[in-house]
From TrEMBL:
Coiled coil region boundaries: none
Originating species: Jatrophihabitans telluris
Signal peptide per UniProt: none
Name of the protein this chain belongs to: EAL domain-containing protein
Domain EAL: 23-277
Length: 279
């Protein structure tokens, strides 16, 4: 038993070491990427379900590796969060997204919104509202075209200053979405405390429709809650026509997912908005 224990702890130590090495490497790569501005934004459409039309896009960050591969956020966001680099990265994302969508609005002549993910560390800063304000001023994007997405865990750490800044942003017309709804804690308290304008139903619930009996009931309850509160509801992760039909039947106003489009580079957005003429 003693030997086994020793082997286990050695195994544990070597894994820990490997993880530490990996995250050191990622952190060094992250620092470099930030310094060299090597992030890329992809955009995924958010669709009005009654109108079957794109009303906006969610900006999703990727990291450009040394060899030109794009690295998904799950591989570097945790390191960015631990190291605090998430704050300058998040500011870059916000500014780039506002600028990209302001340009797209001008080129397309369409009123389109952009949703930007804001991490807990960003939300905790006293200059959040100023950072948002300067991103809007510098890009020329209208307040009503910007939505910031916060998760319940980001709001878990929110203090009076965060609340005051979110109220200020909301009062100026900026939208606030509660992301991954239903996966965190005390969701309902957040809806009462914070000036939330949209709920995003986590894609695990949408994926569970027709699979786990409870998930249909949960999606129905959340869409009903949003309707009664007079706020928007986005069903995330719609992959199949059946899921689309279900979330429409349940009254979701907006949808997002691979069925409509995967996240795409900014250069592809105009093609999504203007379908080719049928001949
Ligand atoms: P999220 O905010 O929940 O974003 C939605 C994620 O679901 C995206 O993954 C998107 O590609 C994926 N998705 C969309 N539709 C479908 C679908 O139909 N099926 C499936 N299986 N997945 C779908 P992505 O781009 O890998 O981003 C993962 C997470 O990384 C995001 O989850 C968000 O939490 C974080 N993230 C991304 N960009 C940023 C950012 O700029 N700042 C911060 N703080 N976090 C970000
Ligand atoms: Ca999001
Ligand atoms: Ca989400
Ligand atoms: Ca998520």
């Amino acid at each position: 038993a003693k030997r086994l224990g020793k082997d286990r702890s050695e195994l544990y130590d070597s894994r820990l070491h490997a993880n530490a090495l990996a995250s050191q490497r990622t952190e060094a790569a992250l620092r470099r990427a930030i310094e060299e501005n090597r992030f890329v934004l992809h955009y995924q459409p958010i669709v009005s379900l009654p109108q079957q039309a794109i009303v906006g896009f969610e900006a999703l960050v990727r990291l450009l590796d040394d060899d030109g591969t794009l690295i998904a956020p799950q591989h570097f966001i945790p390191v960015a969060e631990e190291s605090g680099l998430i704050v300058p990265m998040g500011t870059w994302v916000l500014r780039q997204a506002c600028s990209d969508i302001a340009t797209l609005q001008r080129v397309s002549g369409m009123r389109l919104a952009v949703s930007v993910n804001v991490s807990a560390a960003q939300a905790a800063r006293h200059d959040l509202a100023d950072t948002v304000a300067s991103a809007l001023t510098d890009s020329g994007l209208d307040e009503r075209s910007l939505c910031i997405e916060l998760t319940e865990s980001a709001l878990l750490e929110a203090d009076e200053s965060t609340l005051a800044q979110l109220n200020d942003l909301r009062a100026r017309g900026i939208q606030i979405s509660l992301d991954d709804f239903g996966t965190g804690y005390s969701s309902l308290t957040y809806l009462r405390t914070f000036p939330v304008s949209n709920i995003k139903v986590d894609r695990s619930f949408v994926a569970g429709i027709g699979v786990r009996p409870g998930d249909l009931a949960i999606v129905r309850a959340v869409t009903g809650l949003a309707r009664d509160l007079g706020i928007g509801c986005v069903a995330e992760g719609i992959e199949t026509p059946r899921q689309l039909a279900e979330v429409i039947a349940l009254g979701a106003q907006y949808g997002q997912g691979y069925l409509f489009s995967r996240p795409v580079p900014v250069t592809d957005l105009l093609d999504l908005l203007v379908p080719p003429l049928r001949t």
